[in-house]
Amino acid sequence: MSPPVVLSQDDLKKIAAYKAVEFIESGMVLGLGTGSTAKHTVDRIGELLRQGKLTNIVGIPTSKMTQEQALSLGIPLSDLDSHPIVDLAIDGADEVDPHLNLVKGRCGSLLREKMVEGACKKFVCIVDESKLVKHLGGSGLALPVEIVPFCWKFTANKLQNLFQRSGCVAKLRNDCEWKPFVTDNGNYIVDLYLKKELGDLQIASDVILRLAGVIEHGMFLDMATTVIVAGELGITIKNK
What we know:
Layout: H1 9-21, E1 29-32, H2 36-50, E2 58-61, H3 64-72, E3 86-92, E4 95-96, E5 102-103, H4 110-117, E6 120-128, E7 143-147, H5 152-162, E8 169-172, E9 188-193, H6 201-209, E10 214-217, E11 219-220, E12 226-231, E13 234-239
Parallel strand pairs: 1-2, 1-3, 3-6, 6-12
Antiparallel strand pairs: 4-5, 5-11, 7-9, 7-10, 8-9, 12-13
EC number: 5.3.1.6
Family: Belongs to the ribose 5-phosphate isomerase family.
Organism: Hibiscus trionum
């Protein structure tokens, strides 16, 4: 007997991405996500365009990185000003809870992702099974908040104090040179690390957004219409 094939995390991401591309039809306006999983989606769209299996596609990228990738593949691009209604967006997530709420933005593109994915008729989220959590923040990894650079310590302290009961620690995100990470929009990101649940997510969302200095947060609540999960045992599709 041949030994069982062990799939890497990247293999699983690619499987989920290719499955999501099956939702695409010629003539669609597409939201193009950002990150390691979404990259596979954009690659596949470019391949299908070259093969003539998809035509008349218009992509709206959620980051400069995705824009560069799509242009290199010959995918026609536009923006929300020209196409305020998006047929379908496909993107990854950092966490998915049982109600299909998401944490996104650990790649730093949460604002543009939320703008594009909030304008779409259907938002397909693609993940490998390691991204499934019992509650948002449950992975122990970052819940990102995009803030203005002005007095960022003041804003970070305000964010940390909001969620003291959840054991929140707020940290400014740095780049590889240990300088503040700057988003495509010229802003900073404060990462929130939580030891306990946030409680009511809508209330948490509202109190974050009411803080002066906050641009947007990485909780995508009630936005995903479908989540495709790739695991060792195959593909699972979860719908709202």
